[in-house]
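Q: Could you predict the 3D structure of NB-ARC domain-containing protein?
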Amino acid sequence: MPTLEADTPRTAPTASDTPIRHDDARTITTFGTLLQQYRESYQRPDGHVGLTTVELAQLIGKSDSAIRHWERDSKRPSRDAARDCDIALNANGALLTVFDKRAPAPHTHIAHNTRRPRLLPAPPQLVGATSTLDDITTAADTGAPVILTGGPGAGKTALALRWAHQQQDAHPDGILLLHARGRATTPPRTAAELLHQALDRLSSRPSRRGYDVDALADELRERLNYRRLLLVIDDAGSIEQISPMLGIPGVTTLVTSRNELPGLTLGIEHARAVTIPPMDPDTATHLLTTIVGRRAEAHAAEIARIIEACDGTPLAVHAAARHILTHRDQDMASLADDLTGQHRIQHLHLAAGGHTHTSLAIGYSTSLRTLGPRTQRVLQAATYRGHEFTLADAAHHTGFTHTLTRACLAEAATEHLVHTSAECYRTPPLLANYLHTRTEFDH
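A: Sure. Here are the predicted structure tokens for NB-ARC domain-containing protein:
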């Protein structure tokens, strides 16, 4: 323990400064309350009592503002941070004991007229998603917000809904589903609009706090503090859009987003990211065969071509299956040509009915709009000859420097539109196809 100098040290403990016994933790219901008491009653090597929040922050390598948030219970630390506090303050496990008790205290007050929301669509049928669902559970068990991320068509919403249905018994105070519309064709909801949406679903009376984000966030915390509720925010577009709703004590939060939102995983929220992996060929084949039926089983070679073209994207597999089902008079070889040829993304778009939530082409379009014009130019030029390319190729075709090109590709990677493999960059093949046929979707 480093030598510390208190700003205004006390020379002798008062009654309130008496070191806390481990058993006393049972009567203290929040981590923040107990953290503050241990900090203020800490016995310093120089005989003085108490640490400032700045001093504790220095000891555990966190910011002063993080400590203050934790003590107010306005944000929840990671379990690792809680353990560091426990060790630094010689709490002998008491802080961790309270931290691990995620259930609300018996006397926790639930705000008057607060509903227990359970407005969830029917659980979707998923294939081969067990591992990702387990990863979400593991991340949520840390108490930190979970960011479920993946590119267009990866199945984020379906996975989030399936996991939410599995978690109903663990969250008796309800499941609150909010649609942020971060990558929709309509404008994204603002933080204030999302807060109003949450409060309207929790209360029989509309909020009268206008569009003051801080006031709305305070009202939401008052209603949800230490309630065993699951908050699902679907299709988040930015940190600013959702950050006022994060870190509510006792509330489990799952966010889906095409963007990795790295500021949340690096900031004091300590969010845990779970990235959806591509569907492996065997699982994709099983999914398509399950939907299409015997016709698929009788044409293994053609199905294999279609699955390769779908490149592990669940939404593409579903659209391919719909294309096959709606063209029963067309032979399988011809259907495979449709779904692997130059206009395959258009066939998938038409099979999806051009619907915002089921068209991969629209998904790519809305993601590309969030990128800067230079990044869009790099993707367009780099994929001219295919979906795999080097940094030198991309720089050559755009005339940009390697440094600028690398920065553009890094921006595209945050939307899962580019992946790095050894010395090579790779876009989803269907994205490359869309980039060079998208004029067909502009009319």
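Q: Anything worth pointing out?
A: The chain has four domains: 15-100, 130-275, 281-351, 360-441.
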